[in-house]
Amino acid sequence: MKPEPPKVPRIPQATTKRLPLYYRFLQSFNNAGQTRVSSQELSEAMKIDSATIRRDFSHFGALGKKGYGYDVANLLEFFRHTLDQDEASNVALVGVGSLGSAFLKYNFQKNHNTKIVIAFDNKAPVEGKLMSDIPVFNPSVMEEKLAEYGVEIVIFTIPSRSAQEVADRLSKTPIKGILNFAPIRLVVPDHIRVQSIDLSVELQTLIYLIRNELA
To answer: Where is the CoA-binding domain (predicted)?
Structure first.
């Protein structure tokens, strides 16, 4: 029987977003044969100040020892369970345009516990077709296929004009989360968590930071 992920206290969202990064860099240290690592070494590798790293880790209790640092294997195991890396999550993609097609080709297969198993697009036939070895169906059969493929998470790469309508349909299904690339704030019931990524906002933020650093 797979062990339960460790129960952790409520932590800040900014810390939550860094957890997969810690796991990725710890994998790199482990693959290089390094047995222990300091917060300073993590800081230099990740370009995150060491105080932030220590503060993030403090939310989970005593993960390291003063004067020793962190045991790489133990820390990697801890974050593997915390992020539930042993349990794969089936993902569906809605919208196979330029961005959606890129997701299908990448498909999170390396060092991730998620995999796109199905996609939906208005131009796809009801009976489905293969794109990058992923079955793509017409959205008219979305609810049926989500249940058939055991999907927990859905990625939206669709226009904002149709995003809320699709979200309304998904609210009546057992899905748990939406990764939303549509530039719209989705309204969903409490059992669905939404993570929105507005590429135009991210780009504007980057431009602002660059210009103010050079000012």
So the answer is: 84-185
